Amino acid sequence: MSTQELAPVDTTRKDGSATTTLSTGRSGASEPASTRGKTSIADVVVVKIAGMAAREIPGVHDMGGGLSRTLGAVRDRVPGGRPNVGRGIKVEVGERQTAIDVDLVVEYGVPITDVARDVRENVIAAVERITGLEVVEVNVAVNDVHLPQDDEPATLTENRVE
Fold it and tell me: What is the predicted pLDDT for the residue at 2?
């Protein structure tokens, strides 16, 4: 029986999500079990890993741009709704490498450069450890600063007319 090496392939599914072949395999009974077959990682997997890793960093209040956060807040309040861990994350995944963009809202008073550095380091470590893909870059965009008074309930104003 002959063995044939499979070439790496990027495929796009019917729903538009992409998968990337991480490792190729060989076929044939004479090949070691660890090399028979291939491993594919969908883009959404990298998005979720990066989102979870970014949220672990102290000083990160929320993720995503204004509209994304607004829609996320509505979705989070719907009964049975789940938080979107991928909000604020965009990825490009190739055969062996990935590039990641992260949109953040940071807490007021934290050094933004330190938070961005920590997010970058944690995202790279998590994605490379879990997926085996090389992270070539993590671009961090800070879109907003969360102020302490943003959490306080709005006070009622007195009516001027009775």
Answer: 40
